[in-house]
Amino acid sequence: MSDEEDDIILSELNDEDLVAQMFDDLYDGMKEEIEEGVNILLERGWEPYKILTEALVGGMTIVGHDFRDGILFVPEVLLAANAMKGGMSILKPLLAETGAPRVGKMVIGTVKGDIHDIGKNLVSMMMEGAGFEVVDLGINNAVEAYVEALENEQPDILGMSALLTTTMPYMKVVIDTMVEKGMRDDYIVLVGGAPLNEEFGKAIGADAYCRDAAVAVETAKSFMARKHNQGAVAS
Amino acid sequence: MTNLSDHALTRQGLPASGRGQILLLACGALAREILAIKAANGLDHLDLQCLPAILHNTPDKIVPAVRAAVAKHRDDYDGIFVVYADCGTGGLLQTACEELGVEMVAGPHCYAFFEGVESFASREEVTAFYLTDFLVRQFDAFVWEPLGLAKHPELRDMYFGNYEKLVYQAQTQDAALTAKAEACAERLGLAFERRYTGYGDLDGVLKTLNV
Questions:
Q1: What domain of life does the native source organism fall in (chain B) (predicted)?
Q2: Could you tell me if A208 and A133 lie in one domain?
């Protein structure tokens, strides 16, 4: 990093330049700078939801695109996510107070036999950033845990993640159980994880396969829009 | 002379010698083990070509690389056998092999066939991170560097926080390699277990390949 960049004083930047700088800081995984930027924008009277969507999600979207395009790799994405997490931890309680719009609700978890949660955590964070309420079941979830969460939380979306070829078939166990219980059509089912692909998603009866966190957000939004439209037609 | 440096096996793979009736198209991480099995059993009808072992880290590139290699060598041998397990391809390698009319090793990955696919599955070790001889020797190239841990050690627990132990599946008896594997476990903050597997299912699979 150059000396010139070291000299940047965030509080002296106007709003536009500050948000642009936050995009850069997010890209570089600079957590403290992101937290400082969030606090400055709050002091300037920005609504928490506006900071979340314009400064954090906006920056993270660039990170997502560059990851998809092979410009950034997993370590850089994790550092960026960590920085965003820092900003979100400031905003989250404020978002609850200020009644930010809620796009939908998602229950998400890594399937039984699988302890990998990096992708799932990224999806959770980006979904929250996009205005979804996320109930994260964590790792190694048996079908009973998914079903119980669906019944208790009544989400719009179920998200399942797997990193292993040996664990991804378990997603079908969950979906088949949902069918048996007559609850499959009550939820949008999104699946993701490194060894998955679109054909697999179709074969197990998921609504969509999402190749990364950005795609998961876009897919979720699109399904929610359809759901609302159907509701409008029906009423 | 054939270059068998681990670095070359990781980045370039190993070219076929052109001698033999059946081509083994393998992951570079298996080169030494396959050559040892060949030598010990006089399997001179088997030739070996390895794709770069580092494809292990990008499974989506394995299937196109296998397809290209099979297409290139199909006419040069009586048969081709793919010495990869599924290796994170989500079943796509199996599908590709069926389309190409070639066979491959059964199992989810080399950790499974070194230990024996059935025995490996029965353990249900959800929280174990596996290394083989090759992966211990190439730990930095396959784990430490690609995960950015040299620059950002603070990411370690984001990657490995849910794991409990590192299982070193030893193909050979090598005290120095065991010490290195144990050091790898320490670097990852995991408990260490050494499990001697020898060549596992791989030995039997290669011996059954006939013209």
A1: Bacteria
A2: yes
